[in-house]
Amino acid sequence: MRSTATATLLLLAGTASAFSVNAPAAPVAPVSGSRLAHQEVDANAAFATSTFPISPDDLTVKCKSYLAPDVLIGTKDGGACLGEDFEFVAAVVGPIPKEEYLSALDTFKLEDSFDTNANWFGFNVDPLQPNRVWFFGRSVSQHTNDFMGAKPEDTKDGGVLTLPPQVFHMDFNEHGKIKEFGFYTADRRQGNTGGLGGAFAYFWGVNRPLPIRECQPYQPSFRFRMLNLVGRLGKRFSKK
After folding, report:
1. How far apart are CA 238 and CA 240, in angstroms?
2. Does the pTM of the predicted model rise above 0.85?
């Protein structure tokens, strides 16, 4: 069950929110006595003035319930937990509307090929956008059956794919339905999938990457490399 739940969710790899326009433009009153008093947001004060009808505690509970195997961000409940204006977004994918998102998840059956543990942690409601829950995942997947022609014994590190840490967000509407879901790689230097997350991590991990730049590990562009070279040369000659 854990494999089915997490692998399906991890298939998809600038966001918009119904409440982002209401978020404060600057931090609210600082926390008294904090070493970061001039920069730290007073979360309690921010939530106290929030007009979003669902409390942070209840929103966190709801977020976790939507990650459960029998719901899984709308993929196991027929989309019942998704708002009509739901969108999926990621670093290079989306925004994808509700129906397209649900149909896209049927394209690949990761749960048939991988035993995955998403390793969720760090659930927090954003005090400046009180309809959003942030959380992290450090997914580890054991390749168990053929995937895109790749066999488990041919996958690196004994068939174990360790994705980089990823930061996820789930936005809700006033009725507790998901308005937006997305994720981004938080540290591309970790893991063994070339810094890639989502479905791209699996393609790369089994040596079946899509023939597009976005499905490859990050490489600086030629212009960026030249700009860095000019900068290094400038520093070297300035010291003489």
Report:
1. 6
2. no
The 3-class SS string of 164-231 reads CCEEEEEEECCCCCEEEEEEEECCCCCCCCCCCCHHHHHHHHCCCCCCCHHHCCCCCCHHHHHHHHHH
* Among 45, 43, 82, 88, CA closest to 62: 82
Interatomic CA distance for residues 105 and 27, integer angstroms? 38
CB 76 within 8 A of CB 9: no
Dihedral angle sign, alpha carbons of residues 200, 205, 208, 211: positive
C-alpha 75, offset from chain centre: 16
Q: Which amino acid is it at 51?
A: T
How buried is residue 135: exposed, middle or buried, by Cβ count under 10 Å (0-12/13-18/19+)? buried
Which phi and psi angles does 59 have, rounded to 5°?
-70, -40
Enter the tokens of residue 85: 């204006």
Q: Could you report the per-residue pLDDT of 208-236, keeping only the tens digit for each?
A: 877 777 777 778 888 888 888 888 887 77
Residue-wise pLDDT tens digits, 39-97 = 788 898 899 999 999 999 999 999 999 999 888 888 888 889 999 999 998 877 779 89
